[in-house]
Amino acid sequence: MASHETLDVVRDGAVLHIRLNRPDVRNAFNGKVVEELQLVFREADHDEQARVVVLSGNGKSFSAGADLTWMQEQAELPTEANERSAERMARMFLSIARCRKPVIGRIHGHALGGGTGLTAAVDVAFCTQDCVFGLTEVKLGIVPAVISPFVMQKIGAGRARTLFLTGERFDGVEAQRIGLVHRAVADEAALDREVQRATGELLSAGPLAVASSKELIRSVSLLSLEEAIPVTSKWIASLRATPEAREGMGAFLGKRKPNWMA
């Protein structure tokens, strides 16, 4: 794997582990983190060996959000440069959400501001019950602008309204209740078990089907039931004719494992 200044990227078979690696600042992200995260997720899209991506953070916290020193530096830039910097950050989150490989988030410690945004951008997030989340930007006189679409997709506009306006912190139990994470568990040992279990489930699924499922959600979510009929009908008709689908159904009927599990 290529070396990175702010990330620890390790391959374990078909699983690509991407770890934020600025533990001295609780993995707060700056311009370099933004650049490297976007690059590594774009590379993951085209990585034929990787079938699952796990995003986590080294040290005591997942991510404390944007590095405030860096944010202050961006605020001093000319308007156009400031806006380009913000767009690069938004596209970093988009590269995670749009990754064709399923992305699991392993969330522990603090996941504040942009850390909550990263949690919202992944496909499946697990956290510890004592994990600390918060859309705390208003406490600093700003707003969770670039992460707002990702957060609202996960928890809805109604819940986002309260959390955006108050900036209140909440724990992993509440994060599970509102749908930000899939499951909150007792401790980091249990967290590792959940990540491993979910990884196993994803590896047992057809890789093209998983990628297609992610695209299906994006394509159908804003359609009415009537509008969805021609889209979904063509979708399943096309997909069930693929070699992967034939292999999957044949393996089930033949009571054997499909070739992607070999």
- Helix/strand structural class: alpha/beta
Distance between the termini: 24 Å
Q: What best-fitting shape do the alpha-carbon axes yield?
A: globular
CATH superfamily of the largest domain: 2-enoyl-CoA Hydratase, Chain A, domain 1
Listing every helix as H and every strand as E from the N terminus to the C terminus, the arrangement reads EEHEHHEEHEEHEHEHHHH
**DSSP summary, beta strand count:** 9
| Share of β-strand residues | 15-25%
Biggest sheet strand order reads 1-2-3-4-6-9
- Give me the CATH fold name of the largest domain: 2-enoyl-CoA Hydratase, Chain A, domain 1
Top-tier CATH class of the largest domain: Alpha Beta
**Mean pLDDT score, rounded?**
96
Radius of gyration (CA) equals: 19 Å
**Tally of distinct domains:** 2
Number of helices: 10
Describe this structure in words.
This protein has 262 residues and is α/β, with parallel strands linked by helices. The model has no long low-confidence stretch (mean pLDDT 96). It has 10 helices and 9 strands. Helix 1 runs parallel beside helix 3, helix 4 runs antiparallel to helix 5 (148-166) and helix 8 packs antiparallel against helix 9. A hairpin with a 2-residue loop joins strand 1 and strand 2 (15-20). The chain has helices at 31-45, 68-75, 79-97, 114-121, 148-166, 172-178, 188-203, 207-220, 225-239, 243-253; strands spanning 7-12, 15-20, 52-57, 103-107, 110-112, 124-128, 132-134, 169-171, 183-185. Helices cover 50% and strands 15% of the residues. It folds into 2 domains: 7-203, 2-enoyl-CoA Hydratase, Chain A, domain 1, CATH 3.90.226.10; 207-261, Orthogonal Bundle (Lyase 2-enoyl-coa Hydratase, Chain  A, domain 2). The strands form 2 sheets. Strands 1-2-3-4-6-9 form a 6-stranded mixed β-sheet, with helices on both faces. A 3-stranded mixed β-sheet has the order 5-7-8.
